[in-house]
């Protein structure tokens, strides 16, 4: 009887083991990820993981790196896109204009319909056409943009511009700026475009500085107020450019267009440390770069308390500052007086679509040779930065933005026989040369 019970017990144990083995075998035949292959469950699992990671970040912010976060498809695509671009050169700046508009985004064409400006001599003016251009076929430019008569408010246009800038290895854009509710003679206010511009620029690791225009009533008092406004509104954004000075301060940089319109005594009240209402040593201190036009402006700029000079104009020989053979002596003056020197280079110049009488200042692009000569001259002067006039000043034909051949009621110039990207490619090449030369100069 005891032997029978032992046999029964052994049989029962064997049966249990057999059932367990069969269960395990069946489980092994079922894919572990079968449920995760369902899109709905996958989305839920991803959200759950994101929430868990976010809680970890909130509780231990110093121990969790952003690189540990799962990347979205958009992030991955952007990262792949950025890898195709050369690294941005933050010593290479390009003047950038946000004053263009079209009916889709602005209710009307803005700046593309630029007036044909009359000559100051009424007798000469009678010999040239007057009136406004009629977009989109007839625009205020001698070239036609590959993106068409675009709006500067169009997010897709800003995205395309940032990609072109990164193709050219340009690290900083100098945005033409008027105070809120103020504008140039032919446009509309554009300060409200800046937040979007900063966001898209940051995506592409591009920095932004401001090119302060000669707005109506500009003086030392409202300049202080406007610089304060810019820094308070945009200074905390990661795309806002700051530069470390020789004394270790990390400061914003501002280009001041037509700075000579204010006398040096007025500027000194803003820019000299000795003045009681100076911006120096306040939270709004910055690097202020004056426009050098005439040779006599050198001393005025020094007396005013500016931190450096730039030359802006793309026409070699148009002014003392834009004449390339003068850049060596201007650099020597800047070195002697602890000033930053920023020569401005351009691919050519033609503005006869808006100033039909101004043929004397036209500079032919010569299939890129004019631009390369300008860049070479800038490097010979060993500048602190180089500025490009311009990325997209279409009225004056200084753009390096992509242009296309176009035929119709208006005859446009083009970049043929080269590609629409030719001036981006030239910029990219010289950005690398400039980077290499800078490293040699610092040794």
Fraction of residues in H or I helices: 25-40%
Distance between the termini: 100 Å
Average predicted confidence as pLDDT: 87
What is the H/E order? HHHEHEHEHEHEHEEHEHEHEEHEH
What is the tally of helical segments? 13
Structure classification: alpha/beta
Number of strand segments: 12
Q: Which percent range describes the beta-strand content?
A: 5-15%
Shape: globular
Low-confidence stretches: 1-7, 24-70
* Rg over C-alpha atoms, rounded to the nearest angstrom: 30 Å
Largest sheet: 10 strands, mixed
InterPro entries: Glyco_Hydrolase_99
GO molecular function, one term: glycoprotein endo-alpha-1,2-mannosidase activity
Family: Belongs to the glycosyl hydrolase 99 family.
Pfam families: Glyco_hydro_99
Sum up the structure in keywords.
443 residues; Glycoprotein endo-alpha-1,2-mannosidase; ten-stranded mixed beta sheet; signal; single chain; signal-anchor; alpha/beta; 12 strands
């Amino acid at each position: 009887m005891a032997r029978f019970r032992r046999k029964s017990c052994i049989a029962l144990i064997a049966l249990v083991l057999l059932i367990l083995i069969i269960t395990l075998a069946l489980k092994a035949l079922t894919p572990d990820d079968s449920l995760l292959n369902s899109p709905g469950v996958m989305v839920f699992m991803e959200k759950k993981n994101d929430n868990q990671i976010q809680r970890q970040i909130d509780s231990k912010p110093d121990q969790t790196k952003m690189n540990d976060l799962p990347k979205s498809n958009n992030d991955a695509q952007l990262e792949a896109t950025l890898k195709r671009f050369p690294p941005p050169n933050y010593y290479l700046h390009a003047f950038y204009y946000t004053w263009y508009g079209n009916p889709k985004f602005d209710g009307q064409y803005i700046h593309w319909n630029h007036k044909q400006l009359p000559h100051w001599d009424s007798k000469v003016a009678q010999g040239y056409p007057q009136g406004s251009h009629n977009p989109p076929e007839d625009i205020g430019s001698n070239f036609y943009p590959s993106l068409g008569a675009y709006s500067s408010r169009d997010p897709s246009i800003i995205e395309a511009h940032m990609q072109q800038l990164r193709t050219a290895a340009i690290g900083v854009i100098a945005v033409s700026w008027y105070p809120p509710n103020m504008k140039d003679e032919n446009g509309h206010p554009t300060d409200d475009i800046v937040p979007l511009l900063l966001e898209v620029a940051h995506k592409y690791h591009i920095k932004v500085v401001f090119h302060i225009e000669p707005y109506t009533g500009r003086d030392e008092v409202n300049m202080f107020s406007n610089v304060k406004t810019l820094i308070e509104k945009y200074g905390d954004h990661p795309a806002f450019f700051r530069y470390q000075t020789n004394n270790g301060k990390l400061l914003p940089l501002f280009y001041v267009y037509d700075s000579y319109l204010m006398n040096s005594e007025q500027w000194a009240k803003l820019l000299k440390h000795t003045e009681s209402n100076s911006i120096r040593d306040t939270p709004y201190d910055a690097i202020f770069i004056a426009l050098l036009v005439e040779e006599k402006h050198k001393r005025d700029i020094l007396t005013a308390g500016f931190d450096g000079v730039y030359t802006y104009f793309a026409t070699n020989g148009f002014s003392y500052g834009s004449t390339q053979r003068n850049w060596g002596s201007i650099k020597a003056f800047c070195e002697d007086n602890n000033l930053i020197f920023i020569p401005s280079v351009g691919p050519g110049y033609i503005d006869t679509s808006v100033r039909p009488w101004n043929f004397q200042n036209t500079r032919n692009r010569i299939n890129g040779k004019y631009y390369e000569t300008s860049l070479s001259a800038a490097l010979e002067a060993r500048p602190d930065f180089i500025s490009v006039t311009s990325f997209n000043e279409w009225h004056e034909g200084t753009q390096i933005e992509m242009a296309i051949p176009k035929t119709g009621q208006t005859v446009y110039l083009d970049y043929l026989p080269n590609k629409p990207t030719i001036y981006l490619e030239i910029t990219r090449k010289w950005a690398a040369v400039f980077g290499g030369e800078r490293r040699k100069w610092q040794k």
